Amino acid sequence: MEQEIHITLRFTLATGEVNLNEIVYRLKELRDPLVLKILEQVLMSYDDLISERLRHTEIYPSKARKGLGRHF
Question: pLDDT digit string (tens) for 35-45?
Answer without folding.
Answer: 788 778 777 87
